[in-house]
């Protein structure tokens, strides 16, 4: 959450290759920049993982990456669902000028926290291919890694598609209802 506020104005707070690719698909990010960002995201994850191993003398049994606890299919489905939710929220707060941009970091951060509570015990709640790839490369643990490459990418693309599907207009709620509150507009219509 803090990193979104700290780097959002510089790089758009792109830490997740699946989100970057989805933004490019829906034309919120230039395709020409996608490879540069993905390389930076993966290199950052590998360097961070390597730093953790150096600082804390991490043993094989202390693996800090993500591996499926249940079946690969369970973890894949959970990664798709939680990545869908994450991208849906990101699309709402980062690409829709009707949202309150100052709350973007809180909305995204709370979504990540809730996703971790729900999916963490089964899949590790990665939601980010780079977050899973860095520790896997450094510690050479590749069990179920494909889940964390495919799941978040599928989920974010579906989440971006769903948000863009329901975004019917660029008008704000106030412009559509002629009031600041949807409930007021409903009660006003019922009174007529």
From TrEMBL:
Domain of life: Eukaryota
Pfam families per record: MIP (PF00230)
Protein name: MIP domain-containing protein
Transmembrane segments: 36-56, 76-94, 106-125, 145-166
GO cellular component, one term: membrane
Source organism: Cephalotus follicularis
Matches recorded under PANTHER family: AQUAPORIN NIP2-1, AQUAPORIN NIP4-1-RELATED
Chief place where the protein resides: membrane
Membrane topology qualifier: Multi-pass membrane protein
Cellular localization per UniProt: Membrane
SUPFAM superfamilies tied to this protein: Aquaporin-like
GO molecular function, one term: channel activity
Record-linked Gene3D superfamilies: Glycerol uptake facilitator protein
């Amino acid at each position: 959450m803090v990193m979104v506020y700290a780097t959002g104005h510089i790089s758009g707070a792109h830490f997740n290759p699946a989100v970057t690719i989805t933004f490019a698909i829906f034309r919120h990010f230039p395709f020409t920049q996608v490879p540069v960002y993905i390389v930076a995201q993966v290199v950052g994850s590998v360097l961070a993982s390597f730093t953790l191993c150096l600082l804390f003398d991490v043993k094989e049994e202390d693996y800090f990456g993500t591996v499926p606890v249940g079946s690969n299919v369970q973890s894949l489905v959970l990664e798709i669902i939680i990545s869908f939710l994450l991208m849906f929220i990101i699309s709402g707060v980062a690409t829709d000028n009707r949202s309150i941009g100052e709350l973007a970091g809180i909305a995204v951060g709370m979504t990540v926290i809730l996703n971790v509570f729900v999916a963490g015990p089964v899949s590790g709640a990665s939601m980010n291919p780079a977050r899973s790839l860095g520790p896997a490369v450094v510690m050479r643990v590749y069990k179920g890694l494909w889940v964390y490459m495919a799941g978040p990418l599928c989920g974010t693309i579906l989440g971006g598609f769903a948000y863009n599907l329901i975004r019917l207009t660029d008008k704000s709620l106030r412009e559509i209802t002629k009031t600041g509150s949807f409930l007021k507009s409903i009660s006003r219509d019922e009174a007529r």
